[in-house]
Design a protein that fits this description.
It is built from 21 helices and 2 strands. With about 500 residues, the chain is mostly helical. Helix 3 runs parallel beside helix 7.
Length: about 500
């Protein structure tokens, strides 16, 4: 798993670098402006759908591919899910003029044009998700790790060309679509030997049947139903950022401030997980398919513990040095010191949610691997509803940070509930999992805080020197990583997976 994690780490770092590069370009050229607001608002819904398809759909597709245990995957098997997923995209395209009028009274037709162009990325993201799921099932993690970086690189290069010609929100939307087109093409090239592109009639003739079997139709309907459940719940669960941007639109420059902060928190999340949740998904699915439910349960909990070890340095340093990070990345061109303060305030709140989101990933995967789609959907709907209500409630008093705090509540509840579902109704095992994760974060917080305070004492002019900011932030990061690694090393002998080894391995019914 270490070798696979290294591949994912390299891909994640490349993805972070090109993503930050694009944000730096936007911040320098546009800052917080009407053009940036229009672009970020126009990409809200398409980004939400694409994120669900590429980030969440493999949780359903990978177990399905592994269960079939066939040398090649036929795209004809996905015609029903494709039809089902086309419905919300078409509806958004038709209703976009009315949606745009909710966000702006100033030239809503421009926002409509941007949003409709960005919606072209959704079908590309769906096919990229299918190809990525095949790569995950075949454990080709180099392709998986680099796919996001390929998207970002295409987006960045296209934007650089357009900026030299004169940028507009519509041209930025074209850059957005180009990124997903290149990603889908690269993913297809990587799995071309594993894919059969044929229609249903050809598939029938190849199998020597006059019509698709009842069993095949049943599997298609089951897959479509599971994807529909996942998509419906994920739409609400992952719509939290969309709601945050919608609520922020009443503040001057709110959507852009939220978006600039999101790029940093997303980078922290990518760096925190190192793709461990995706890497462990095939192993968890295989264990569950073999009836080894407790083995899959143990692996999920163990991966969550190790993810906490990676997440702690990034989230703690992101919280302590949010202002320095924003200054280093964005303070140039049209991005002014007032924007730095606004974005850094949001990041401090959002980093708490990043920690819970990173650790919850492997725990959620276990629920999908065991077929508990309804349970996962109900949990997502419940936690997100509470989070959205909290965002609305906190906005008048706390402004934009209050809006983001609602999302943090959603992620906290998600982690708490899925940890209970995954570890099982066993207080000792649940306490052990929480104790390990909390100890990792507590030690990291103490070590990083001491170094941070020492840095402020040694460099009293920290707020005026970017070089000193970089130095102190780097030293704090190194200290936080050392503290986290030390705790992980100390608890590895009594890790969650070892503690569960002595639990009787009983078979359970998947999805019961």
């Amino acid at each position: 798993m270490a070798r696979k994690s290294a591949f994912m780490t390299g891909g994640s770092l490349a993805n972070v670098l090109v993503g930050v590069g694009f944000q730096l370009l936007l911040a320098q050229q546009l800052g917080v402006s009407e053009v940036s607001d229009r672009y970020f608002l126009g990409t809200m819904a398409p980004t939400l759908i694409a994120t669900i398809l590429i980030g969440s759909a493999p949780s359903v597709l990978v177990p399905s591919i592994l269960a079939k245990n066939q040398p090649k995957v036929s795209l004809a098997d996905y015609y029903l899910p494709t039809l089902m997923l086309s419905v919300p995209v078409v509806l958004l395209f038709v209703l976009q003029p009315h949606i745009s009028s909710l966000f702006t009274d100033d030239q809503p037709q421009q926002l409509t044009s941007v949003a409709r162009t960005c919606l072209l990325a959704c079908p590309l993201a769906w096919f990229a998700s299918i190809f990525q799921s095949i790569s995950i099932a075949r454990e080709r993690f180099i392709v998986v790790g680099l796919s996001g970086a390929v998207n970002g690189a295409a987006l960045l290069l296209t934007a650089v060309v357009y900026f030299s010609m004169g940028i507009s929100s519509q041209r930025l939307a074209i850059c957005f679509v180009v990124g997903y087109a290149v990603q889908a093409a690269v993913q297809l090239i990587a799995v071309r030997s594993d894919v059969e592109i044929k229609n249903r009639q050809q598939a029938t003739e190849l199998d020597g049947r006059r019509a698709l079997s009842t069993n095949s139709d049943a599997k298609q309907k089951s897959l479509t139903r599971n994807i529909a459940i996942l998509f419906s719940s994920a739409i609400l669960y992952k719509s939290q950022p969309l709601v945050e941007r919608s609520l922020s639109s009443i503040f001057d420059g709110g959507p852009s401030i939220i978006a600039y902060g999101e790029k940093i928190t997303q980078a922290a999340l990518l760096a925190s997980t190192l793709g461990l949740a995706l890497i462990s998904l095939p192993q968890i699915s295989k264990a569950v398919a073999a009836g080894k439910i407790e083995e899959g349960r143990a692996l999920s909990a163990s991966v969550a513990t190790y993810v906490a070890g990676f997440a702690a340095p990034f989230t703690v340093v992101g919280f302590l040095h949010s202002r320095e990070i924003v200054r280093i990345l964005y303070l140039r061109g049209a991005f002014d010191p007032a924007d730095v303060e606004s974005v850094s305030a949001l990041i401090r709140v959002a980093m708490v949610g990043v920690a819970f989101s990173a650790v919850a990933g492997p725990l959620v995967n276990f629920q999908y691997a065991t077929g508990h789609y309804g349970r996962a959907a109900a949990t997502s709907i419940g936690t997100t509803s509470l989070g959205i209500a909290a965002s609305v409630l906190f906005r008048p008093t706390y402004g934009l940070p209050g809006v983001v705090a609602g999302g943090v509540l959603t992620l906290l509840l998600t982690y708490a509930i899925f940890s209970y579902y995954t570890v099982g109704n066993n207080l000792a095992r649940l306490t052990l999992l929480h104790a390990q994760i909390v100890s990792i974060f507590c030690v990291t917080i103490v070590g990083a805080s001491l170094i941070s305070m020492a840095g402020e004492w040694a460099f009293p002019a920290l707020s005026s020197s970017i070089v000193q900011s970089m130095l102190v932030t780097t030293v704090t990061m190194a200290t936080a990583a050392a503290c986290s690694a030390a705790v992980v090393w100390l608890i590895r002998g009594s890790s969650t997976i070892d503690a569960i080894d002595d639990v009787p391995k009983t078979k359970a019914t998947v999805g019961e």
